[in-house]
Amino acid sequence: MGWTRLYALIVKELLAVLRDPKGRAILIGPPIVQLLVFSYAATLEVRNVDVMILNRDSGHWSQELIERIDGSPTFRTIEIAADQAEVRVAIDNQTVIAAIEIGPDFSRNIEAGAPTDLQVVLDGRRSNASQIVAGYLSQIAAALAAETPAGKRTGPGIVSSVPRNWFNPNLTYQWFMVPNLIASIALLIGLIVTALSIARERELGTFDQLMVSPLRLHEILIGKLIPPMMIGLFHITVYILAAVFLFEVPLRGSLLLLYGSAIFYLGSVAGLGLFISALSMTQQQAILGAFLFMVPAMLLSGFATPIENMPGWLQPITFVNPLRYFLVIVKGVFLKDIPLSEVVNQTIPLALIAAVTLSAAAWLFRRRLE
């Protein structure tokens, strides 16, 4: 009889979400759009850069430098300035992000083996992109310097480093971004769906009926827990298929390990959602509570910046963030083929978070009954 009651509650929760046209649209449309948009737009790479060059030199080496900049896939257009006033206007109006001024003695100094300088003017209003563009220009200038007469003479005595990138040799940014989105969008959907479940019951006036029904407290928790986990597993499956077949991200590890850890991850997310829902009286409060947790969780997960770069007092807070652990698992399974031991080490905290949050949600339910 217990299984019959539990099955009825699970079906009721799924119908409450799927029968609503708006609910279906929220579950299907936005996650797919976010996956497609963020995979292409959320990148720290700088491409299609417009630059301006003020060339005061008529020699060979200045032309060689311009051709190398023009041939780089990073730069989209190169505008040639007539004077410094034109450079100032272009930077002020954000027509270009960088301007390079080549002095009149640039080629002569190179041929003579004398030091020569380049002036690079960057748009400081776009600080991150400007720093990356400055790094690109420095690499081009360094490669050109190695081919000058002075560079060839000193070349044998120079120690150079050749970087080799593991797991993502071509540094394809979507290989980093798409696995991150699998974890983060699953957090978004699972948290909101679960947070709304009990708040919706209160607004519709069915919460008291649910509490006086033959369902026991643990059955109510399980019945509220399983449907969001089923929806989350569906979304994760769609994202994995899109990652492999649409974005061509290599899946080097075991799907069994990925899905096994995903169950604990979704359980911890659903536990947090139930805890938020138990605290909320309305669906609006539940949504606000979910976003109140979700935004810091994204920032403190290592999604964009490494946790090791955060202040020492802030890093312990990330231990209660389930997204932190599942990001390691999903990226490791996709790109690194991490072993079972590493997956278990990251899954144990997820199980602890799920146990604590579900226990807290059960305690709040009991308080409601008293």
Automatic annotation (TrEMBL):
The UniProt entry lists the main location of this chain as membrane
State the InterPro entries in the record: ABC-2_transporter_component, ABC2_TM, ABC2_TM_bact-type
Q: How does it sit in the membrane?
A: Multi-pass membrane protein
Coiled coil where?
Answer: none
Q: Name the UniProt key words of this record, in alphabetical order.
A: Cell membrane, Membrane, Transmembrane, Transmembrane helix, Transport
Among PROSITE patterns, the record links this protein to: ABC_TM2 (PS51012)
Q: Which domain of life is it from?
A: Bacteria
Instruction: List all membrane-crossing ranges.
Output: 175-199, 220-245, 257-279, 286-307, 347-365
Q: Does the keyword Ribosomal protein apply?
A: no
Location within or outside the cell: Cell membrane
Q: In this protein, which residues make up the domain named ABC transmembrane type-2?
A: 134-368
Q: Which family does it belong to?
A: Belongs to the ABC-2 integral membrane protein family.
Report what the protein is called: ABC transporter permease
